[in-house]
Amino acid sequence: MRLPTPRGRVLPWLFLAPLLAFVALFWITPVGLTVYLSLTNITFKNLVYFIRGDFSKISLTLQNLANVFLGKDPFILGVTEITVLYVCSVLAINAFYSLILSIAIAFFVKNEALSTFLRITWLLPRITPSVVYGLMWLWLMTPGTGPLYQLFSLLGIHPLSWLLCRPYSQLLMIMINGYVGVSFGMIIYTAAIKSIPKDLINAARVDGASDFYIARKIIFPLLKWPMLFVISWQTLSLIASYEYILIVWGGGAPGTESVGVAWSAGVMVFPLYAWFQAFALGNYAYGAAISLPIVIMGIGLLMFYFKVFGFQRLMQPTRIEV
Amino acid sequence: MDRSTLYTRARRRALLEKLLKAVVVIVVAVIPAIPIWLMYAGLVAQAFSSRVTLGIIPVGFTIRNWRFLWSEITMGLTKYPSIWPMLLNSLYLALGTALIVSLIAGLAGYALSRMEFRGRTPMMQFILALHAFPSVVLLIALFVLLNKLGLYGKGFITLTGVMIIEAALQIPMGAWIMKGFFDSIPWDVEWAALVDGCSRFTAWRKVILPLVLPGFAAVALFAFLAGWAEFILVFTFISNQRWYPLSVYIYNLIGEFKYVDWGMLAAASLFYAIPTIVFFALSQKLLLRIYVGGLKGVA
Are the beta carbons of B30 and A132 separated by less than 8 Å? Predict the structure, then answer.
């Protein structure tokens, strides 16, 4: 029940006004600006004219869009392939591996202290500031002295550099992001597993079901909805994520062409390519054009999710339907 | 078959199952966690020891790795600025973000939870969509916008601009969380205040606000940690070294000192990560509750 108030029509919008102002300026405007930029020839050379409002040096062109959408840019295809590999592999870890992990930690481990300890361990990568997390991987993989490098050497795998040689570099890219991403699924699934009524599991136990059987026949089917939620959410964020790749393979400051390492290591994903074009090369218009497919996919996926799942279900990500 | 054989068989089966479960846990949750433990053990070991053998076994205690706290670091001819101004920049960025987000999210969350108005459901859908949308793709447009607003390349003003953008990106999620906290307060409490003659605003300030303080704390904490850990925005938008926050400072140190002085890098990273670790340890349950409510990004 909500109170009808005398100024009922205006008051809610007064409360919402600051939020709407921020959203208009920093969400809606940038989406429009991305579309506009991708249709221009703005680079670091003529950005200053755009800022002054002098449009004589700025022309509209379809060249950027042709480069991206028609593949006129020779690098686009390779970048797309790497992005597909990246999104699919990390998604598999984040949505499926995390499911097995959650069942192991939250259901198989009966000791509460051990269970909590493992859960916190797996949460650490997400909580750690990205720069520190990136540094730790660099250190683990230092050729010669890095602990993981030594460990793999013992197993007979010793590439010159994990960071630079494919497919090891790509494997590393997947691992670095997977270790962070897996905890998202873990949190959602663990909450879901804990909310399964105990009677259900006990009833199965009384009937002689083993824990494996319960996991397969009761927990898995009940986690269908949380799983869909994790997959949808993670797809959306993975297509746009490149922070850890930038930190580990980037190096150097904007304005230098230092993202070169990411090229040779085969870890240049789509959004990182946009970043590279805009901030390393100064091609702002082209960078915006490369971001455009991701913006469109993002909005498209969101609309699709709302249509398929319905709003009510999206509001309750961990609901269990028994 | 007599009962004792049945019993032994059942026991054997139970034992086998226990063993199998242990194997699954070890293979799935323990062995893959080794790199995580190695990382953190290594970070702490490196930070306090003069030499580290076999990756993580420290030899000799030293505080020389922490010299960045009291002296200038030099690398060849390059002098690195002191870490303290960077700490202030980081604090400014994180505290400012927390303040803006909690204020605006508090107002919006209240309206969404408590008021009836046309367009309420579409509004909630919109905010949820914003929360799920990967805002980092808008980086280039935000850069141009920052330029257009005259906020780029101006030191402190740019840092403030970045703070406002950071806050703007966190607001939808904050509003969503605040709505949840407002929802959990019984309507009767507010009703009583209104019956006693409070205006909607007074009721919000005097009655509801004290009850949702934990919500504000959670949203502020979350925004603080986001601002503290922010990397891409500051790395891309702040060009003046004087106004770098810690994340960019440490990133640059990594660029110069990796393979050369892991000890100092580890110490500086630990110094930077301490607030995050402390806050998380203190409010683990609260943060988890928010994470479950939905968290953006793989990052």
Answer: no
